[in-house]
Amino acid sequence: SIPLSFFAGIGGASNAGVLVKGSNYLETLSETKYVVFDKTGTMTQGVFEVSGVHHNEKNADEILEYAALAESYSTHPISKSLQKAYGKPIDKTRVSDVEEISGNGVIAKVDGVTVAVGNTKLMDHLNVDYMDCHSVGTVVHMAIDGVYAGHILISDLMKPHAKEAVEALKRAGIKKTVMLTGDRKQVAEQVAAELGIDEVYSELLPADKVVKVEELLGKKKEKEKLAFVGDGINDAPVLSRADIGIAMGALGSDAAIEAADIVLMDDDPLKISKAIRISRKCLRIVY
Ligand code: ADP
Ligand code: MG
After folding, report:
1. Closest ligand to residue 180's CA
2. Where found (predicted)?
3. What is the rounded CA–CA span in Å between residue 159 and residue 22?
4. In this structure, are 59 and 117 located in the same domain?
5. Which domain range does residue 70 map to?
6. Which of 108, 148, 165, 200 sits CB 3.0–4.6 Å from 70 for a disulfide?
């Protein structure tokens, strides 16, 4: 039978905005020694702001319009920022043949031309020569009918408690923090350094994240548990694979919330260490 205090633990956690899906997860959480994060939406707000548009043939307004239209069916944070910067209602009858390639971008027909919006991987895949861009931030490249059209520079903001969250995990005895992201190396390393995260792996596809977590799981001791924290549709497989999966609840995708064992209701990364502390306290009461 399950001790009553387990339920008290779950209740106490939910009061703190931490939803635990079952009492067994409290025990696993209490033994967590490795915390692996996704970047976008987990440590950063995932609410990007367009900070620049660099164009070739078309003008800046046209670039933004094509990007917003091509991305109009996407729920990715990048799409949301493009819609916001465009600022006008989207006539979806202008958009067809939409294909979203996870970790790469979107290809769609807009007004009859083929618009590709995404990272350098997408441009490489389409054999489009792009302009290299060394600015800090996420670079969204665009090609129209296979011809490079320009790029949009967008920047993400760190979550207010992101740095504190990593420090609090260290104080709670977490051995290692790791960040996995689909974003560029330059951006990933800058964020990890700023937050004091021990290890960082960038330019990963969703399947690569699972492989990385499996590598980490293979290296650690049996009794030491690994938690993964993420928010996106892409994170569902890795949330299930970790010893404990923690999802951001407010902005997180349904798939991530479904796959997780624990949900942080307010998306605050500081709640990760709080949840660990609650679980340990609860376990001490039990044994
Ligand atoms: P993260 O792992 O940081 O949460 P994702 O796996 O969601 O990031 O995306 C990785 C990269 O793929 C993004 O940084 C971006 O370059 C590109 N990308 C993914 N989806 C889109 C999209 N809808 N539009 C443009 N670029 C995209
Ligand atoms: Mg994400």
Report:
1. 1
2. Cell membrane
3. 28
4. yes
5. 49-155
6. 108
